[in-house]
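Regression test case RT-17, inverse folding.

Input:
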């Protein structure tokens, strides 16, 4: 590539990024995070005042643009949220804990829409905070710090006692609710800390996860260690498989109504991952159909599922 061509490409890349920022489709900080540089570096590159390796950053920006265009122009947009019967039931459990200022447990199979419903409920309520436990975020200190970050407590202390008091002070009087997803990862001490936090602040709380969330409260050492927590759980909701009405609601959101297509979607929803794999299949099927969800047919759905399963 000649010097002139390289300069033209650099100018074009910078102009495209600047146009996206000017249109409000993104911002400098988001672009910086995406390519692994500082916001200041992006700002200076866009202004033409960067003193470092501009070519390296421009190449990263060009790759970012290419990926963004692929996602925008190739990948169909799935329905943002479909209020299935299961989602409506989960809303009920969330709403009860929120209004009654008590603890609910929502547990069951993976891929049936628990997390999606919780995210939507949190989106609709400004005083609901959704956090996710994990193997690295299972202790009292880690889950409290995760909650502090969600509460935008940027100066939260890291020492357990101080952190607990700071989070309690922040939650008091909010009338809010904390939802802990993947709560099956939490250690006993962390669960007890959350129970006490709920009681002291009067907020609602929902523990979500797989069946272990419930079984660890009802079996084994429940009579000794978990009795105090279990006795305070006002509502328990098990979701063990996707409902046929859930599949029909999702199919309708994608513009699918044929009997053959619906039967195939029901079969896919019976597999592990249920609605999650169903939505992934429909998204790929829409790509195979040329991006038009109205033209989705049984052949597209079958081919997409086969491709996702890795079958030749």
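Golden output:
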């Amino acid at each position: 590539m000649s010097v002139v061509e390289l300069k033209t490409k650099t100018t074009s890349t910078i102009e495209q990024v600047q146009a996206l920022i000017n249109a409000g489709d993104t911002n400098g900080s988001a672009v910086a995070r995406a390519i692994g540089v500082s916001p200041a570096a992006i700002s200076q590159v866009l202004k033409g005042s960067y003193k470092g390796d501009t070519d390296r950053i421009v190449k990263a920006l060009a790759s970012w643009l290419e990926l963004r265009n692929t996602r925008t122009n190739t990948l169909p947009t799935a329905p943002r949220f479909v209020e299935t019967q299961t989602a409506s039931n989960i809303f009920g459990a969330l709403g009860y804990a929120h209004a009654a200022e008590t603890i609910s447990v929502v547990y069951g199979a993976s891929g049936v829409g628990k997390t999606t419903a919780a995210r939507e409920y949190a989106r609709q309520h400004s005083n609901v905070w959704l956090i996710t436990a994990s193997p690295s975020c299972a202790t009292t200190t880690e889950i409290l710090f995760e909650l502090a970050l969600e509460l935008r407590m940027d100066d939260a202390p890291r020492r357990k006692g101080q952190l607990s008091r700071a989070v309690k002070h922040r939650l008091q009087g909010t009338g809010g609710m904390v939802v802990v997803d993947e709560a099956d990862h939490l250690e006993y001490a962390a669960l007890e800390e959350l129970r006490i936090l709920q009681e002291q602040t009067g907020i609602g709380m929902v523990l979500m996860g797989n069946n272990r969330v419930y079984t660890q409260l009802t079996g084994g050492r429940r009579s000794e260690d978990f009795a105090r927590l279990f006795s305070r759980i006002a509502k328990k909701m098990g979701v063990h498989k996707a409902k046929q009405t859930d599949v029909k609601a999702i199919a309708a959101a994608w513009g699918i109504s044929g009997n053959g297509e619906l039967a195939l979607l029901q079969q896919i929803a019976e597999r592990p991952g249920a609605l999650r794999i169903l939505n992934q299949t429909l998204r790929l099927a829409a790509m195979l159909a040329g991006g038009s969800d109205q033209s989705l047919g049984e052949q597209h759905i079958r081919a997409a599922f086969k491709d996702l399963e890795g079958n030749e």
